[in-house]
Amino acid sequence: MGNHKVFVAFMVALILAATGSAGNAAPPIAGQTVTILQGQTATLHAASVHGVAFQWLKNGDKIANATKDFYVVNSPGTYQVMSINSGDCASELSDPINVVVKIPGNIVSADMSILLTSALSSMNLETPFTYTIMIKNNGPSTATSVNVQNRLPGEVAFQQLTAPAMGNAVYTDYNKKITWTLDKLETGQSTSFDYRVKALQYASITNTASVSAAETDPDLANNTASNTIVLLGLTIPNVFTPNGDGVNDTFEIPGLGNYTGNELIVMNRWGSTVYQKKGYNNEWNGEGLNEGTYFYLLKVQQPGSGKWDVYKGYITLLRAKTN
């Protein structure tokens, strides 16, 4: 398969599709800067003789789900496209089309942006963790009636909200929503606040927040932010039956291999250690011990960090009676 280049490099057609536009505009030259008014859209078309699939890019990054032979833009940036032929061979990138969004002189605008981060100190469900929402006004005008909305994902329970340095934030339980409002935010000014939640289950948890203001926002792409964390977690059984039948013969902890380090300590009812192993690999079978209840302390190291989680509980050892 040889390389080919998508003809969009010199065959991009621009169609203005907004109120007040004049319909079809002349095709721009490759590399040309195309200007549209705030609220308008531009439709970029790619033409490739052998192309059967396409991928559009903005500022060098692939645009999710932008895989047709056209793409509608409403935000500023540098756009390119590649095509893929029937032999699954990708073309070179097209020459860029630069899109500029112009704000009419009588419109006051404020580009609000938002960032959502999380700080997880433990993978244990019993340990709350913190989300931080940060907003910024990138200008050019003061933002007023700033409103931040954050509906919590179903996998977490709200714990505590820290009063923000600016504005007022409230949590409503019936819809699990945090609403943060500010009277205004000056050009170039940023502010943030924290709140704590507790995970309800081991899962991949995605949280999303958005920001808006009374003024026209020239770039809506940065008005929403998402944060995803993955809680691996451990579900530790409370009984095992080392009787030689090949079923549940060892103290097996599902998911333990996801952690980079661990240490298991097992004690009897009097607090004496009956088993201890660093780098435990689900091999303890209770050899030499009587039936009964024992107590464990399991330490596991979180992947990618030096932090350790501690699990404590009991395990019952049962053996089948033999004749």
UniProtKB/TrEMBL annotation:
<feature type="signal peptide">
    <location>
        <begin position="1"/>
        <end position="25"/>
    </location>
</feature>
<protein>
    <recommendedName>
        <fullName>DUF11 domain-containing protein</fullName>
    </recommendedName>
</protein>
<dbReference type="InterPro" id="IPR026341">
    <property type="entry name" value="T9SS_type_B"/>
</dbReference>
<dbReference type="InterPro" id="IPR013783">
    <property type="entry name" value="Ig-like_fold"/>
</dbReference>
<dbReference type="Pfam" id="PF01345">
    <property type="entry name" value="DUF11"/>
</dbReference>
<dbReference type="InterPro" id="IPR001434">
    <property type="entry name" value="OmcB-like_DUF11"/>
</dbReference>
<dbReference type="Pfam" id="PF13585">
    <property type="entry name" value="CHU_C"/>
</dbReference>
<keyword id="KW-0732">Signal</keyword>
<dbReference type="InterPro" id="IPR047589">
    <property type="entry name" value="DUF11_rpt"/>
</dbReference>
<feature type="domain" description="DUF11">
    <location>
        <begin position="111"/>
        <end position="229"/>
    </location>
</feature>
